[in-house]
Amino acid sequence: MRDNVAHRWSGLILVVAIAGCAAQPPNGARDLHVAAPGGINIPIEYYKLENGLKVVLSSDTTAPTVTIGVYYHIGFRIEPRGRTGFAHLFEHLMFQGSGNLGKMEFIRLIEGNGGVVNGSTRFDYTNYYQIVPAHTLESVLWAEADRMKALAITQANLENQQGVVKNEVRDNVINQPYGGFPWLSMPQVANENWYNAHNFYGDLADLDAATLEDARAFFDTYYAPNNAVLVVAGDFDPATARAWVDKYFAAIPARAHPARPDLTEPEQGEEKRDSYTDRLAPRPALALAWQVPARGTPEHAAFGLLDQILLQGEDSVLWQRLVQQRGYSSGVGGGINLLGNQFTYDGPMLWMLYLIHDPGVTPDTIVADIDAEIARIQNAPPTADELERALTKIRAALYDLAGSSTRFGLLDLLASFALFDDDPARINRIESEFRAVDRALISEVARKYLTPVRRTIQVVVPGRPAMGATP
Amino acid sequence: MKRATVLLACLAAATAVAATRESPPPAGTPHEFRLPAKETLRLDNGLAITFIDYGSVPKVTVLAVIRTGNIDEGEDTWLPDVAVEMLKEGTTTRTAADIARAAAEMGGELGIGVGAEQTTAGISVLSDHAVAAVELVADVLRNPRFPESELPRVLANFERNLAVARSDPQSLADEALARLVYGDHPFGRVLPREGQLAGYGIDDLRVFYERNFGARRTHVYVAGRYDRAGLEVALRKAFGDWSPGPPPSELPARVAETLQLALVDSPGAPQSSVRIAVPVPDPSHALYFPTTLMNSLLGGTFGSRITTNIREDKGYSYSPGSSISARRGGALWILSAEVTSEHTAAAINEVFREIDRLQREEPTTAELDPVKNYRSGLFVITNSSPNGVLSQLAFMNLHGLPEDFLTHWVANIHAVTPPQVSEMARQFIRPERMTVVVAGDLATIGDSVRKLPQLERAAMP
Known about the structure:
The complex is a heterodimer of chains A (471) and B (461).
Chain A: E1 35-36, E2 39-40, E3 45-48, E4 54-59, E5 65-72, H1 86-93, H2 105-112, E6 116-121, E7 126-133, H3 137-149, H4 155-174, H5 185-190, H6 194-197, H7 204-209, H8 212-222, E8 228-234, H9 238-249, E9 272-278, E10 285-291, H10 298-310, H11 317-325, E11 333-336, E12 350-356, H12 363-379, H13 384-403, H14 408-421, H15 430-435, H16 439-449, E13 455-462
Parallel strand pairs in A: 4-8, 9-13
Antiparallel strand pairs in A: 1-2, 3-4, 5-7, 5-8, 6-7, 10-12, 10-13, 11-12
Chain B: E1 5-7, E2 32-34, E3 37-42, E4 48-53, E5 59-66, H1 79-87, H2 96-105, E6 111-114, E7 119-126, H3 130-142, H4 151-166, H5 169-182, H6 202-212, E8 218-224, H7 228-239, E9 260-265, E10 271-279, H8 288-300, H9 305-313, E11 321-325, E12 332-340, H10 344-360, H11 365-382, H12 386-399, H13 404-407, H14 409-415, H15 418-428, E13 435-440, H16 442-445
Helix pairs in contact in B: 1-6, 3-7, 8-15, 9-10, 10-15, 11-14
């Protein structure tokens, strides 16, 4: 019963798909505190310690568990030049030992207390999270503070994790048909700025070149309390939790960290085309990408609705045309930020869509179908029904997130809004931000952003002959 | 309505730390955990309905679990998959586009799936739309149109998915394992032969549907927040006059019990996909609980012995792990690992060493107690969501498990002793009964795997 594997990248799925609600107490009299007429209403306490650590507490006693996350504002795209893959390798090193916990002891502490533990590396953050029985919260806070205080790794442990990470790359990219397509492959072509366009998983040679010195310097530079947020969500007493957070985290000194690099992407003025051969792929695949409007603007909210209308769900116009009517593939995937959602990053971002298709169809044929659907929205705003359906899908996804017993989706949004917006309460305004969007703006955003000259088309050429009817 | 209270006996984690270092603060008092209320009723036509009253947000899941799947396909591999996919292509009153739009208007998406022994059709929607969700699921299950016009497209999709599966070393390893373990049983054929899919016509799908769908095989689960009385009326109306149909079929799998080895060539592969399987008790058996705990300690958790050894010590593999696949009458312990090609034999040897060590020396309570805590904690996490409870109940119903399976779960885990864990390893994880599959670059692997002492006598079918 393998329920958890540390460090697994979670793949390509965008929106929370399955409802996960917390337990109802036996008397059934609990208020639906997360269900308000305007959508979700998550309780939030937000404050900062003197050392700059941001803290978000969200108390909810429906299930006797608590979810804890520490998010550091250092993701794979911000890692230093010449050290591709280092942010992710470093995530592994955070499990290899700290001041009071040896290798494997962090994991044993969590699992031995009845919890699950994991970490992941994304564009702009690296996170470490646990879901544990409520009465073990203090132990977890102590342990997370321990590894924020000091890293204690050996050369042997570094080399061990270099081996593990190279195997992770083989698992997820090299030894799998369509491995890394398009979440890893597309940014390297569609983006111009090195930070957005390098190999996020890391070149194997760069991974081999990493030293203990690099690891110490990386820790000192980025893993400071003033570059992080601690989120605690679930069944706990807020006053007690606050006291524990003070006790374990307040004494960790703040450290100066460098300004984040300039992540700006130049405005694209010409369509880009790329193709590569995949040794294991039996059929061609196609991906398209466009830069999306800046996060936090009304255009960004409008683009989120555009994404719902065009691409999310089997009712979406592109699914209906490409899958249902044309039969190019069994599905079309994509969205804003394939490794999270439209709120969980901080910088430029691509909207992508992708599918695997048969050799009898050319990419240009499929692109023409996509263009036709985009043109419809560009020429006339979506109907009121289309917009309402998009809003309904968003509302359902937000409820799933608020009601999930793992609270991982909640953690991601609270941490992102704290780290990137200094405003975790924004989670309760997501629905109203979308509801404020005018239908005309959706059309305008489609006209401005989804043009041929602003897009990148990537084609995967099968490296293995397609299987025909002959035996 | 039955309720059960399970107090978690979680100990403070006994992490071995040197005296000079700080120890983690002790855990507090466990909070009370109650399994959610549930209630089951059966309609005259045999259809069962279970209400699970649970959740803090206005959402509800309606899921029909039908006792059919690949077990009923005979030699027509994936025929159930094609038939069930075609349910989404339209009912007598709705097109595929109508279904997708109606689902989205409720805040959901119709999900269907075919498993080895169970098929599901369901949707999770905003609670306001609970009745409409029931009507949609019933319509799709009861009134399929099987439009001939859509079949070529659907078959082309399956052909494409099959081509991808056949080029994926991991899926080829899984296929070879199933073939060796289950032989001629449908569980032994996980991928269709070339050209086989193209032979499925609309009539084949209809016949499969008629023979395998009906009220007696169907259990509808409703979980979340909803108006109980109103929904019962809707469910009775939507399913009450469905014909009973056949009872569930019985086709117990027989599993291989002699040592065998298959090497599948994947030229140039940088990793080998290693699978090791051996029969174990299924969930209806008294030794199931101790066997699952043995698995957690041996290879089923991140801190387990196999993961610690071949990942955290040797770095051979990223995510090795073992699990118990609970097919009725054919449950297996399966170890899966993707390992660096040049370390293939060394990694398999380490797995055998860990099995041997567990068989020879019982674990200490200091090692076993945290594993029990892990399983108990996971039980709470799993059962703290409507869909988690729902899938547990569906599992219990499939295996014919008693009501107290869940209520005694934590106590059963905590009752297992260290000698029992070693005994389970001795009794079931026996190398002479194993099926071993390695899919990888055979030029690199050479005869290193075949020459392992534990595999020297393996038959190579």
